[in-house]
Amino acid sequence: YIETRVRSHCPYESGRFERCLFSSLDLLYQKILSAVSLSTQIVKNRQDREDKVSLWLDEFCRQLTEVISLPRSDLKGIEHQEEHQEVTDIEFLSSVMNDALDDLRDKLKKDFSGADLSSFSRQPHTILAEHFEGCWEQCPFCGAVCTNTVLGHDGDHQVVFHRPRAVMGKLWHGTDHLAIDICSSLVASDCSFVIGDNVSIPFKKYSDAGPPYSTWNILPDPSMQAYWKWFVSHFRTQLEALYNKKFQGKGKIPEAWRRITKQEALSELEE
Fold it and tell me: What is the pLDDT of residues 139-151, one digit of tens each?
C-alpha cells in the first residue's frame, strides 16, 4: 500500500517526481542558509572565547538539529583545516560556506534531472514502512492487520475489528458467492472452511488448521462495524468486477446495509 501511494504521489513520467526532489532540495537549502546566517550572527560578537570556528560549528550543528542529522564530529576536519589556516574571520567562513552550498545545490539539481524512484539506493516506501512500528501480520480469513504495536510480539495476533471476507475476495466453498460474514461471527457459528486437499475445518476450531490460522486469537463477536457494511454495499459493483464473483446466495447484501449512509459509517469510526 505504501509503495502504491509513493508511486502515485511521485509519478516521474509527468515530471512531478523531479519537482518533488527540487522542492525538497530548495527547502533544505534555505534552512541550511538560515543556519549559516544565524550561527554567524550569534558567534561573531562573542568576546569570551577565541576559538570562533569551533563555536561557529557548534552553533551550526545546533541550528540544524531538527533539519538533518549532522554529528558535530563530522565537522572536525573543517575545524582543523580552518585553524591550520588561522581563519578567525567568521564572516569569511560564512561566505565560504554559502558559496560551497550554492555549488552543491547546483550539482544536486543536475543529478536530480531525469531521476526516478530507481535512483534511490533504498526505496522511499521501504524507508517509510520502517517508521511504522508494529506487527504487519494479516488475518488469514479477512486480511485485517494485527493491531499489536510490537514487531515479533509474544502471543497470538489479534485485531479489534475484523472485516467482511469479501474484501479479500473470499467465497463460500463450492460457489462463486462472495462471503460477507466476518471472522469473529464465523468462529461463533457452525460453519466450516476448507483448506488444502478439500479438508473441512469448523470455524470454531480454526486453530486446528495450523499456521497461520493457529497464530491468531479471534474472539467470537457477531457485531460488525457500520463502515464495512457501507463499504461492501457502496463498492459492490467494483468488488464484483475485481474478483469476477457475485454477492448472491449466502453472500447477498442485506437491504439494511444499503440504507447506511457514508456519514453514519464515518461517524461510527470517530467514536
Answer: 999 999 999 988 8
Residue 266: domain span? 165-270
The verdict on 38 and 85 lying in the same domain is yes
Question: Which of 102, 128, 154 finishes a domain?
Answer: 128
With a CB cutoff of 8 Å and minimum separation 6, the contacts of 95 are none
Q: Has residue 133 been placed in a domain?
A: no
Same domain? 116 vs 21: yes
pTM beyond 0.85: no
71-103, pLDDT tens digit by residue? Answer: 777 666 565 555 444 455 778 878 888 898 999
